[in-house]
Design goal:
The complex is a heterotrimer of chains A (287), B (305) and C (252). Chain A is mostly helical. The longest helix of chain A is centred in the first third of the chain and has 38 residues. Chain C is 36% helix and 27% strand. The longest helix of chain C has 14 residues. Chain C starts with a strand and ends in a 5-residue tail after the last helix. Classes of the chains: A mainly alpha (287), B mainly alpha (305), C alpha/beta (252). The interface between A and B is large, with 87 and 87 residues.
Chain lengths: 287, 305, 252
């Protein structure tokens, strides 16, 4: 081989390896999904989705865990979305570069890096014990809300930054105050993108286990949660309990697969919705 | 004051109130971070009345439930380290390859679908990884390597490695994407191939962003990951001391907390020791994040010039 | 000769440490069109942003000097900026209609300032007529402002500006993003606007300045105003050699 051929060969090999690695990752993903789907689909029935667990959680359905996860995700989003959007409004619309802003940004970045189990400890110490909220939907939602907050802030910041500066100038030049320009022009323009961030937060909250083990989750509840102070069942925790902690783990495999499939379907459903909204938005955007 | 001045004054007050309200919301993150540190410390400090902090960190035995508890977390510290190193060996090559492939090589048509797919992969809950590890990887490893148990550090490393791929890939891809076109054009103009351009011009220019990705997305996430390791690594508090330890059970700091908090009496020494582990975890990830933040900040400053 | 509308005294403009305007002194007459011309980077856009204090939203931007308007210095701290911007409107380089309906775009300003709903229809129609857009859009007022062509968008922005009944209209290269036909329409419009308004237009297009303006100020790189006077005189018989070189295209 001459030099040119050698270089071409090296490049072809390298590219092939990179492509292989990328598709290996995709293959792993497809493998995980199809594995869970094929093993879990048999367990899915109307009863499985709408009934309570029976016989020491070896039979029956996962209805309370679905409801609990739904409540938890909603509670988390209701708390974190406004807080995150307001924080992003400050960072994008009101602040100029400075020490304080740098400090706040370091705070957000570091909060994003705090391990989920540490959030669980924090929630246990502050919400469950110190504030006396107990192991409850509220404690879990608050804990998860702070867990997803950095993500909501970043998504909202991106949404606001994507609003053209001309809209702000136009509003201000017409005699709008700062807040009026934000409220009447910037925010409405950014809403779809902000919602995408909110949906992503919903998906993350639905899938988390570690932050809720000490703050919200119960092995089993005989009733659906009747207030924000009730402990709840949740799909991720239910999977963990059935697969790792239960004495009957071997005989309930099909139920575990079924639960995992339901959880995956919910999380993917949420994420795919967000991805679709985002791509539609990019297509329709005209500024 | 005239009417006009009053309304002007009221409007300014109104605007200022709104601004301070938003500021308070923005400051929440840092307040929460501060509160996390305070509460971990407050709940965890009790353990240091029983055990010296150095003994706590370097003690080789963990037997918290005894009447005279022995509280050494070295097995868990090393456990976390082992699992993390293993996971990085899996995740860094895969994640970087994917980032380079997506940013530089992939045909435009499949670029976005691949990115979306990797984003979806990032959305798979850790408990699902743990579950798949439990029902698939654990028995498979046991048979393949003829081990007494498939619950090993390696099992955890493989799963965490796959979990860390999407985040490493996406942060690295951003870093590669941020490399100015001129770099590439200059390289091509000198007669370099695409591959030479990638390895000699693009990757060196994005090295800060990539290392931040590895620290932040990789190490920090993996050390803090709980459910997956809890479900597949066997959780035996044995000190891993050689490469062979990858094929033996291991226990991480995160798993200890999740596993034992249920049985620890509120306010007792055990409870306090678990919070102290939380504090150690928090400190490690905090430092890793600061380092990554520093690298990224310096990199951005350098780019401005 | 019309009465003086704005008197600019010793105006300096800085972005952080870079100075973009140096000791600018100029008297702008009412009900006339004043053009500001000069090469790019001479600070002409910054000059406009000082007049309605829009520079305040740019981090690091700072001005010194005085701009006398209505007997007071509009740069002084206790001026009501919102009230000021109602009286000194602005049209931007790139048309920037809000992503709202045509009607909502024009009604935006009046609504902010508390105009009663009953009067909105009249204001919207009047403003669109003045901007020469009414006949084109009267049947699609509920369509998005972004559906219009570039030239129509810019006229919509002018209508939006007129709806708050300003006394002065600042125009920052309003035609630079438009084709020649759309440009001609806007130029006609500017010519008609001076009956009711004072117009200050920044442009890098010298023919445009010559066509639409009564007075012209020439800014040169470094932010100095080198000559100011009747447009006819500036273009036919400039006093300053550098201005002559600039006008005749020897540089810039």
């Amino acid at each position: 081989m001459n030099r040119v051929q050698r270089r071409r060969f090296a490049q072809a090999t390298a590219f092939a390896l990179l492509a292989f690695a990328t598709f290996l990752i995709l293959a792993i993903m497809v493998g995980i999904i199809s594995f869970v789907a094929s093993q879990g689909i048999g367990a899915i029935s109307w009863e499985f989705l709408t009934a309570f667990p029976r016989s020491g959680m070896t039979e029956g359905g996962i209805f309370p865990a679905i409801v609990g996860t739904f409540y938890l995700a909603m509670g988390t989003t209701l708390i974190s979305l406004p807080l995150g959007v307001f924080a992003a409004i400050y960072l994008v619309e009101y602040s100029y570069q400075g020490r304080l802003i740098r400090l706040i940004r370091i705070g957000i970045n570091n909060l994003a890096g705090v391990p989920s189990i540490v959030f669980g400890l924090f929630g246990l110490a502050l919400f469950v014990r110190h504030l006396g909220l107990g192991v409850s939907l509220l404690s879990g939602s608050l804990t998860l809300a702070f867990f997803v907050l950095p993500l909501v802030i970043r998504a909202s910041e991106e949404a606001l930054l994507a609003v053209p500066q001309g809209f702000r100038e136009g509003a201000l030049a017409l005699g709008a105050t700062k807040w009026q320009s934000v409220y009447t022009v910037v925010l409405p323009t950014a809403v779809p993108a902000i919602l995408t961030g909110g949906i992503l937060a919903l998906g993350i909250a639905a899938g988390q286990t570690a932050p809720i083990i000490f703050t919200a989750a119960a092995f089993f509840t005989p009733r659906l949660p009747d207030s924000i102070f009730s402990p709840i069942m949740a799909l991720p925790f239910h999977i963990y309990v059935m697969a790792s902690e239960s004495a009957h783990f071997a005989v309930t495999r099909h139920l575990q697969f079924g639960t995992a499939l339901v959880l995956l379907a919910i999380v993917f459903g949420i994420n795919i919705t967000a991805i679709i909204i985002r791509s539609q938005m990019r297509k329709r955007r005209r500024w | 004051m005239t009417n006009k001045q009053t309304s002007l004054f009221r409007r300014k007050l109104h605007e200022r109130t709104i601004k301070y309200f938003f500021f308070a919301c923005a400051a929440t993150s840092i307040v929460v971070l501060f509160f996390i540190a305070i509460f971990l410390f407050h709940e965890g400090v009790g353990v240091f009345r029983v055990v010296e902090i150095t003994d706590f960190l370097s003690g080789r035995r963990w037997a918290p439930a005894r009447v005279q508890p022995i509280l050494g977390i070295l097995p868990m510290l090393l456990g976390s380290l082992f699992v993390t190193v293993g996971a990085m060996i899996v995740a860094v090559p895969l994640g970087l390859s994917a980032a380079v492939y997506i940013a530089e090589i992939a045909p435009p048509k499949i670029k976005n679908p691949i990115k979306s797919a990797i984003e979806l992969l990032a959305g798979i809950p850790s408990v699902v990884y743990g579950f798949i590890g439990l029902v698939f990887l654990v028995p498979w490893l046991q048979e393949t390597f003829n081990l007494p148990t498939g619950f090993t550090a390696l099992t955890g490393s493989l799963l965490l490695g796959v979990m860390a791929v999407p985040i490493i890939a996406s942060i690295s891809e951003d870093a590669i994407y941020a490399v100015p076109r001129d770099f590439r054009e200059a390289s091509y103009a000198l007669g370099a191939t695409k591959w030479q351009t990638i390895t000699r011009a693009v990757l060196p220019a994005s090295i800060s962003g990539i290392s931040a990705a590895i620290i932040l997305g990789g190490m920090s996430r993996v050390i803090g990951e709980t459910m997956t390791v809890l479900m597949v690594t066997g959780n035996a508090p044995i000190i891993p001391d050689s490469i062979c330890s990858f094929l033996r059970p291991v226990r991480t700091m995160t798993a200890s907390v999740a596993l034992e908090m249920g049985e620890a009496a509120k306010g007792g020494i055990h409870y306090s020791a678990l919070f102290a582990i939380g504090l150690v975890l928090f400190t490690i990830t905090f430092l890793l994040n600061l380092i990554a933040d520093f690298i990224l900040h310096r990199y951005k400053e350098a780019q401005k010039r | 000769m019309s009465a003086t509308m704005l008197t600019v005294k010793e105006l300096n403009f800085y972005y952080s440490k870079t100075q973009v305007l140096r000791d600018v002194n100029i008297e702008i007459p009412g009900n006339e069109v004043t053009a500001i011309i000069g090469p790019s980077g001479c600070g002409k856009s910054s000059f406009l942003k000082a007049l309605n204090r829009l520079y305040e939203i740019i981090p690091g931007a700072r001005v010194t000097g005085e701009i006398i308007y209505n007997g007071g210095n509009l740069l002084s701290r206790d001026v009501d900026v919102v009230g000021l911007r109602k009286e000194i409107g602005m049209v931007f380089q790139r048309p920037n209609p809000f992503p709202k309906s045509i009607y909502a775009n024009v009604a935006y300003g009046p609504r902010l300032h508390g105009v009663k709903r009953k009067e909105l229809d009249r204001i919207v129609e009047e403003s669109l007529r003045k901007a020469g857009l009414w006949d084109e859009v009267k049947d699609k007022l509920n369509k998005s402002g972004l559906d219009l062509s570039g030239g129509e968008q810019q006229r919509l922005c002018i209508a939006r500006c007129l709806a708050v009944e300003p006394k002065i209209i600042l125009m920052d290269e309003p035609c630079s993003a438009l084709d020649p036909i759309a440009t001609a329409k806007i130029e006609d419009l500017i010519y008609n606007l001076k009956q009711d308004y004072t117009v200050i237009i920044v442009t890098h297009n010298m023919q445009q300045a010559a066509r639409v303006s009564d007075k012209t100020a020439v800014f040169l790189t470094g932010g100095k105003m080198v000559e100011y006077g009747e447009t006819v005189k500036i273009f036919e018989n400039p006093e300053n050699k550098i201005v002559e070189d600039y006008i005749t295209g020897k540089f810039g």
